[in-house]
Predict the structure.
Amino acid sequence: MKHIAEVEKLESILQECRRLVVGYSGGVDSTLLSYLATKFLGQENVTAVIADSPSLARDELDDALDIAANLGFQVRVVVTDEFSDDNYLQNDSLRCYYCKSSLMDCLEPVANDLDAVVALGVNLSDVSDYRPGQRAAKERGARFPLLEAGITKDMVRKLANDFGVPNWDKPAAPCLSSRIPYGTPITIGLLGRVERAERYLRHRGLANVRVRDFGQIAMIEVGGDDSLGSAADQIVIATELRKIGYDFVSISLEPLKSGSLNRVIKAQE
């Protein structure tokens, strides 16, 4: 196994924490962190907590719970209330900050009850992107063990594969709100429309896909080896997405890039 030094450093960091409450999403980062923390600290000392809200697709929640059961770590579901926060709903450049603050509101009581440290699955590769949510979590005392151990995203996937974590190659799946351009208010209706559109595309066999919601327009981004198929296939897709609530359907000329809407923020900076 490669990256032994990083794993040993991670184990040392986790042992220092003694007990952990992991913000768990079902993505490969938080899954690997939950699994290794349980491996190194024992099941009784690690609780993975998944935040349930309208911004989490139902399929993602079900998959996350199945993975936790498969790997044998404890998981608890909490309901977050970011949708009661007007700051979050207005969807400005700090949306992720307000969202992570809401998550910390739920994780901190669990951690206090268990005398545990809150940990998130932030890795070294994440620091190069615009991630105000990380700042919110850090301000509240959360730790980022993967980052502290110098583990990059590529290392996360390699280690997850080595340790038999089943979602080691799962594409990133940010919250549904990330499909809404900054400045467009978040509504449950918009997120439901995005969720239905992406579920339909996944059922067509697309594993790495996003539907960016520009009001009347759905812009589809695909990555990896995924393809929307022939012109006839694309007409079928457009017809189905119009049934879901879009008037127009477009295909991005650029491949899927997680966080692509952040380029507006970077341009402003």
In short: The first strand starts at residue 20 and ends at 24. The beta strands are 20-24, 46-52, 75-79, 117-120, 209-214, 217-222, 248-251.
